[in-house]
Amino acid sequence: MRSTIAFVCALIPLALGSPIEVRNNDTPAPPAPITFGAIAARSASPIHLQSINANGRAFWIGKNTTTYCPLKPESNCPPGKDTIFSVGSGGGAGLNTVVPGGQSIYVAPNGALGFTQAHSASYPPGSVFQKFTATEGTINGALGQFSFEGLGATGFIACPVSKGKGPYQVYANVKGMKDSDVPSGCKNDCLGFNALTAPSDEVTWQYQ
Q1: Can you tell me the distance from the alpha carbon of 149 to that of 87, in angstroms, rounded to the nearest whole number?
Q2: Average of per-residue pLDDT values in the chain
Q3: Of 115, 139, 183, 202, which residue is the least packed, with the fewest Cβ within 10 Å?
């Protein structure tokens, strides 16, 4: 018994002199990103309730989503075919992909809403990758909203390739936007809209 007590007592100074890792279990984990599909809301217009799709490193209303997966056979690829956004609590946004490195969403200085190519950090100089916000829709049909608050933006606009004719490229209505920044050459051709969100966790390998 004495030898056991002596052994324990000998360990006490060692334990007191050793650093002890303390974990604060009360610190909450950051909330998971909100993932969703998005549609445009602009009553009595050709873009009303149309989906916002990733195509050619830009976002469009009236163009199909374009995706790519290198895995063979194709059955090994994630099933996603629609454009699904992901917005974190820190204001960053991306596409809901599994490609290594992911694909981030940004607003270019001219207002164009774009996304990075997989395996590439290329983007227009001066682009903003933060200042995105999203509220979550619900499975019972209530819709949330997606927005961008950087570069003095006042909402999203959809700009046709020519006056009154789609498809429509999606822009943030940033401060200082010029006619030459939009496809038709006239900013007045663009339609302001609300970007509404519907929850989805569908995953795609990558968009292009």
Answers
A1: 13
A2: 89
A3: 139
